Amino acid sequence: MPIDLTAAFIYNYYGVNSGIIFPKSAATLCKSKNLHNERGKNMNCSKDVERMCPVTKGPHHGPAPIPEEGRWVKAYEIKDISGLSHGIGACAPQQGACKLTLNVKNGIIEEALVETIGCTGMTHSAAMAGEILPGKTLLEALNTDLVCDAINVAMREIFLQLVYGRSQTAFSEDGLPIGAGLEDLGKGLRSSVGTIYSTGAKGVRYLDLTEGYISSIALDENNETIGYKFVRLGKMMEDIRHGVPAEEALAKNTGTYGRYADAPKYIDPREE
């Protein structure tokens, strides 16, 4: 008599308690032992799958834990995700980019910072996204049109950062408080933007750097850049708002970098 190898395997696995001898078919064996997968009872399965004998799943250890705000968490649902992180996205023609910062607590976005560059229309999209995001769950935000494709891509990237445990607060106990996003902006609450323009014919022009608005570039005897003068626009406007005269606020928030004072020549990067 030919041996049914599938039935033999099941018999050997479940032992003599099965009360079944292995020459019987696998389908009969499975039916007699009531081994049907409970999850599959209400599923619409093909005939090929219905004829199959269930094989018991071995591992039941759940997902791998990820670091979240100083804890190791097994994330089963969106509410299990917490952390502060960043995501960068660009639109399809690569004309503009967005940096998105979210502070998520128990799956809900509690704080959002939207920074954009390169596209004028994107700033208005950022204004709308800033109203849309807080209060939404991370999954809701992922499936919401945030007006600009660059912001949507940034949302996708930050989602991946958070659900895979790559957040900025992965090992920070209790994470960061709401308001931590403002620390990225510094004094005057302005985004850090670097704007440099250059040509082969006329060389480089520094327009904006981390210190602020570049008003003058220092050149040496070879016309090489050796320093620059800058204005901290955010701080200057803050002083003016608080009653400091404009001329005084400008002088107070103007500084230099490099060998600016030693230069034999200065140029206005926007005019010369």
| pLDDT < 50 runs, ≥5 residues | 8-26, 28-36
For the largest beta-sheet, the strand count, sense and barrel status come to:
6 strands, antiparallel
Q: Strand-and-helix sequence, N→C? A: HHHEEEEEHHHEEEEHHEE
Question: Tally the helices: what do you get?
Answer: 8
**Proportion of beta-strand residues:** 25-35%
Helix share, percent: 25-40%
Gap between N and C termini: 98 Å
Give the rounded overall mean pLDDT. 86
Number of individual domains: 3
CATH level 3 topology of the largest domain? Sufe protein. Chain: A
CATH class of the largest domain: Alpha Beta
Beta-strand segment tally = 11
Plain-language structure description:
This protein has 272 residues and is of the alpha+beta class. It folds into 3 domains: 5-50, no CATH class; 66-184, Sufe protein. Chain: A (Alpha-Beta Complex); 195-267, no CATH class. Helix content is 26%, strand content 25%. It contains 8 helices and 11 strands. Strands 6, 7, 8, 9, 10 and 11 form a 6-stranded antiparallel beta sheet that branches. Strands 3-4-5 form a 3-stranded antiparallel beta sheet. Strands 1-2 form a two-stranded antiparallel ribbon. A hairpin with a 2-residue loop joins β1 and β2 (71-73). α7 runs antiparallel to α8.
Essential attributes:
single chain, 272 residues, alpha+beta, Sufe protein. Chain: A, 3 domains, six-stranded antiparallel β-sheet, three-stranded antiparallel β-sheet, 8 helices, 26% helix, elongated
Would you spell out the secondary-structure blueprint of this structure?
Blueprint (H helix, E strand, L loop, with lengths): L4 H10 L11 H7 L14 H4 L15 E3 L2 E3 L9 E8 L6 E9 L2 E10 L2 H13 L5 H5 L6 H15 L31 E5 L3 E7 L2 E8 L5 E7 L1 H9 L4 H7 L1 E5 L6 E3 L5
Antiparallel strand pairs: 1-2, 3-4, 4-5, 6-7, 7-8, 8-9, 8-11, 9-10
